[in-house]
Amino acid sequence: MVDSLGVAVIGAGMAGKAHAAAYRTASALYSPTLPEIRLVSIGDVNERFGTLAARRFGYRQWDSSWQAIAENPEIDVVSVVIANSLHREVVEGLLAAGKHVLCEKPLSDTLVDARAMADAARSAATVAKVGFTFRRTPGIAFIRDLIHSGELGKVLHFSGRYWTDYGCDPHGPMSWRFAGEPGSGALADVGSHLAYVAEFLCGDMTSVSGGQLSTVITERPVPLGAVMGHDHAEVSDVFEPVTNDDYAAFSATFQNGVGALEVSRVAAGHANSLTFEVFCENGAASFDQRRPAEIQLFLREGRSAQNGYRQVILGPEHPYIAGGLAMDAPSVGFGQNDAFAYQARAFLEEVAGIAEADSLPRCATCDDGVHNMELLAAVARSAADNGATVSTSTIGANA
Ligand SMILES: NC(=O)c1ccc[n+]([C@@H]2O[C@H](COP(=O)([O-])OP(=O)(O)OC[C@H]3O[C@@H](n4cnc5c(N)ncnc54)[C@H](O)[C@@H]3O)[C@@H](O)[C@H]2O)c1
Questions:
Q1: Is residue 293 in contact with ligand 1, taking CB distance under 6 Å?
Q2: Which of 64, 189, 281, 319 could be stapled to 141 by a disulfide with Cβ–Cβ 3.0 to 4.6 Å?
Q3: Which CATH number goes with the domain that contains 74?
Q4: What are the residues whose beta carbons fall under 8 Å from the beta carbon of 386, sequence distance 6 or more?
Q5: Which ligand 1 atom is at minimum distance from the Cα of 228?
Q6: Average pLDDT of span 287-309
């Protein structure tokens, strides 16, 4: 194993800061088996965002370009956490420079680019993975365990939604999130997470139908300065068209079961509500990201007169928690930032050459990232064809 790994994060925005913090924490989780992690650089075109994040999270320097990071021999591992349309150029450039790359979801903004990235990843000598953080959520991982162990049994029906409200103010600033092809809006932004979670629990999606994509706020004011994440900002009186979806919904058939998925960025009052219920042969379970340290569980057992959903508070007996929190006692609570730390840990373990059996579950591959985008493309195709049923395998072959 190498003595140390140098780390950089490209993008100091909303999720970039979560990556930057996660690399700081990763070696303090579980047994101390990682090599020394050197926090080398935060890359961002915006000097203020980049220097602030570097200082805040203890990175040695700020770099204004991804090329500077690619050329720096002190850097081994790079997270790419910038707008989806920029992922391909940066990921390919970093792989060509011999870096290990963890790219944020969705893999890209187009399938063509995503496939090219997966090709580059397959032929690279280094590790290239995609960050689907919700697989690291202890409650979601535990529900999956209950399905796989047979306690919940075979999945029959999945109902999921990811409602957000970052787009519900029509005076909120235009940003990269509101531009792109149909399907590159809420569907790609939060639907990519929800589709990944649905397959994590129910197996592969085989077809989608009833696709609907809607843009309900059709133009937005151009901001006067740089905007981070979903922040509000001063805006000009110039408006630009919103070209992608504020809302998306579809039905799906899975390897196991059927279901419906609904995503929104205009769901006022729901800043970050990933919720689902999964119904199985022996019972059901539900999860709500607003209460990440618990799940609801119903098992058909005992007298039906006293049966029903119960609250299960997550703790050291559930995935990721034992050793994965500084104070890993029952009921201490945790949230989405912890999932980024588990993800960083899993990625660093793989890069460091720690055997899969001794590691956290590996991160998703770029091929998984392509597959996730094929599902979203199938939804967009269904929506364009009045909700027609689209087999996901046809997207794989033809899109
Ligand atoms: N896993 C999650 O839960 C999660 C959450 C939010 C965002 N994301 C993903 O993370 C990525 C970034 O989203 P965000 O919300 O952090 O975006 P953001 O708009 O908040 O931040 C993007 C940052 O990139 C910088 N930037 C722009 N062009 C650049 C370039 N060429 N080189 C370097 N830096 C550049 C910007 O100055 C900004 O600081 C997206 O792919 C998004 O889908 C994932």
A1: no
A2: 319
A3: 3.40.50.720
A4: none
A5: 20
A6: 95
